[in-house]
Design brief:
By secondary structure, this protein is an alpha+beta fold. The protein is 56% helix and 16% strand. The chain has a five-stranded antiparallel sheet with strand order 2-1-5-4-3. Strands 7-9-10-12-11 form a five-stranded mixed sheet, with helices on one face. Strands 6-8 form a two-stranded antiparallel sheet. The protein starts with a helix and ends with a helix.
């Protein structure tokens, strides 16, 4: 019922409510009046029949005394003047039938024997008749009883008459209620409907310059409409200001983006130029050191040899730093060359190269089935070279070292992981992990320039992916990678040859 009511407009609901209330009130009033009239009319019929029984009993007393049934029948026949009396009978004190009369003589309307009554008069209503029994007395002596049956057709006629009147009044009242509802709608429902239509237009079209029409009726509705229009005015002003601010912000963002792009290009160009130009004097230093070691080594003191060794180590470290900076700058300038690549053989090639550098170390390489992804195979090879080289470096104190590469589903994505059982790191400093020149371990313990992981992060972000790490001190570290959109793993023997040729 309630969901169906929601489909109707407020005008229809108000009309239905007015007519329902008016009809229900009128129906209750008519029902109460009819019930009262019916009860009163029944009491009136009982009184009339009681009077008839009293007269018939008084006129039949002498017939009972002198045992004259014929005289009693004549007395009872006088009841035919009352159109609703059907039959009557006089019975002796012992309950024997003395005299009867019936409006339809061919039927036996009167019982042969009537049980004695305990009071002077009693009556009972059946479905269609009134039966009244009264004691016949003479000089305070009970002679017999008189029994009269009356038809209730008069009550039914009265009820039908009431029903017709109630129906006519109800119909006229509903028509009047409908007419008053129409007048009421003009003053109340129509402004509310117009307000609702305005709200619908504003919500649908975002047209905040629309206003609800004012009305001169119903002070509360006028207040509501004015408040609604004022709210629209405020929203319109804010919307206009917001659009202007958004346009200004977009212009500023475009300008700032252009500036940042120019600065980034200049920085990358500067980094590349500086790193490239530093290599020439560095090679000169290395060349002169080699010449000095070759020509004057026997004449040098042990302390001089120590100094030269430190110079050689510093130049080697600077050369590695320059190489890493060049790689980082190249990643920023290089365009992606996306190809469908199976990462399993790509990682296997990287492991094969790194295993040659491991020497006699015992490393347990565990390479699982990796996904097929659209990526730049050259840059992705650089990612795994850095991550696996890190794992080799930080598992140096372990024997055996365990380095694992695999994939696992997480939140609907295929996540690639690189896990080791190395020295790990404190997660309190994880936010520094991918910063340039940031290191979480001492240079004396583990070599490095602090550029490798920054390069890895830049490559992953360039692919639209993400990278993060989890670790515990002395319990290893795990790096997680999501590379954009992953595909299903390729069947064995189909992609590896292509991937090998791409990543070589």
């Amino acid at each position: 019922m309630r969901p169906a009511l929601r489909l109707y407009s407020i005008r229809q609901k108000l009309t239905a409510m007015n007519m329902l209330v008016s009809g229900a009130a009128l129906l209750l009033a008519c029902t109460a009046f009819a019930s009262y009239e019916l009860r009163t009319f029944r009491e009136s019929i009982v009184r009339n029949i009681s009077i008839q029984a009293q007269i018939a009993g008084a006129n039949s007393a002498s017939a009972l005394v002198f045992n004259d049934p014929e005289a009693a029948r004549v007395t009872l026949s006088a009841l035919s003047a009352a159109p609703y009396i059907l039959s009557a009978g006089i019975y002796t004190e012992q309950g024997d039938q003395f005299a009867t009369w019936s409006r339809t003589p061919q039927t036996n309307e009167v019982p042969v024997r009537q049980e004695p009554i305990s009071s002077a008069e009693t009556h009972v209503f059946t479905s269609d008749r009134l039966i009244l029994v009264r004691v016949v007395q003479f000089q305070n002596k009970k002679l017999g009883i008189v029994r009269i049956e009356s038809d209730l057709a008069e009550i039914k006629d009265r009820l039908f008459g009431f029903a017709g009147i109630v129906l006519a009044v109800l119909l006229m009242s509903l028509l009047a209620a409908f007419a008053f509802s129409s007048i009421f709608q003009k003053t109340t429902a129509r402004p509310i409907a117009q307000l609702a239509e305005t709200a619908r237009v504003v919500s649908r079209d975002k047209a905040y310059d629309v206003r609800a029409p004012l009305t001169t009726n119903a002070a509360e509705i006028v207040v509501l409409i004015r408040a609604f229009n004022q709210m629209l005015e405020q929203i319109e002003l804010r919307d206009t200001a917001l659009k202007a601010a958004r346009e200004e912000l977009e212009i500023r963002v475009i300008k700032r983006t252009a500036q940042l792009e120019a600065v980034n290009r200049e920085l990358e160009s500067f980094t590349y130029s500086v790193a490239h130009d530093l290599r020439a004097p560095l090679r000169h230093i290395q060349g002169f050191i080699d010449a000095l070691m070759e020509d004057a080594a026997p004449n040098l003191t042990p302390q001089a040899h120590t100094y030269l060794s430190r110079i050689i180590e510093s130049t080697r470290r600077m050369d590695q730093l320059i190489s890493d900076l060049l790689a980082l700058a190249q990643v920023g300038r290089q365009e992606l060359n996306l190809k469908i690549t199976d990462l399993t053989p790509l990682v296997q090639n990287v492991v094969r190269d790194l295993a040659l550098e491991a020497g006699d170390r015992h490393i347990d390489w565990r390479i699982g089935k990796l996904p097929v992804v659209p990526c730049d195979p050259g840059l992705m090879k650089l990612v795994f070279q850095n991550l696996l080289a890190n794992s080799m470096k930080y598992t140096r104190p372990r024997d055996p070292a365990i380095i694992e590469v695999g994939q696992t589903p997480s939140n609907g994505e295929q996540v690639i992981f690189v896990r080791d059982n190395g020295v790990g790191f404190n997660m309190k400093y994880a936010h520094k992990l991918f910063g340039v020149f940031e290191r979480l371990h001492r240079r004396e313990d583990f070599e490095g320039t602090g550029v490798g992981l920054a390069t890895v992060q830049r490559i992953i972000h360039k692919h639209g992916g993400k990278i993060w790490a989890e670790a515990e001190v002395d319990r290893g570290a795990t790096f997680y990678i999501v590379i954009g959109t992953t595909l299903e793993p390729a069947p064995a023997g189909t992609i590896p040859a292509l991937a090998n040729s791409e990543s070589a």
